[in-house]
Amino acid sequence: xxxxxxxxxxxxxxxxxxxxxxxxxxxxxxxxxxxxxxxxxxxxxxxxxxxxxxxxxxxxxxxxxxxxxxxxxxxxxxxxxxxxxxxxxxxxxxxxxxxxxxxxxxxxxxxxxxxxxxxxxx
Length: 122
Fold this sequence. Notes:
The protein has two domains: 1-52, no CATH class; 66-122, no CATH class. 48% of the residues lie in helices and 9% in strands. It contains five helices and five strands; from the N terminus they run H-E-E-E-H-H-H-E-E-H. The longest helix has 23 residues, at 97-119.
C-alpha cells in the first residue's frame, strides 16, 4: 500500500488544475506537495476544496493526518450520514450540505408519522 504522501502526489499530478509541473503551481508559488521543500504538514486550500473531495478514501486519509489539530479547533467534521469530511458552520452540525436536506426531510416524515399514529381519529 502506498503512503499517504505518495497518493497525494499522484493525485496532484493527475487531477490538480493548478499544477504546472516541476513542483510549481500556477498560483505563483511552489506546490506544497511536490516542491523539494515539502513539509510534513503541507496544505493547499485549492487542493483541499477542489481536487480532494473527488476521492472519498483519500479525503478521509488526508484529514486524519490533521485530525488532532483540525478537530480540536472544530474546523472539520465527518458527516454522520455519508462519512465525507466537511467544514461545519456551527459546532452542532452533524451532516454535510449534501446530506442535510435529505436527513431533515426523513426526520420530519418520521415525526409526522408518529404524530398521526398518536392523534389519528378513532
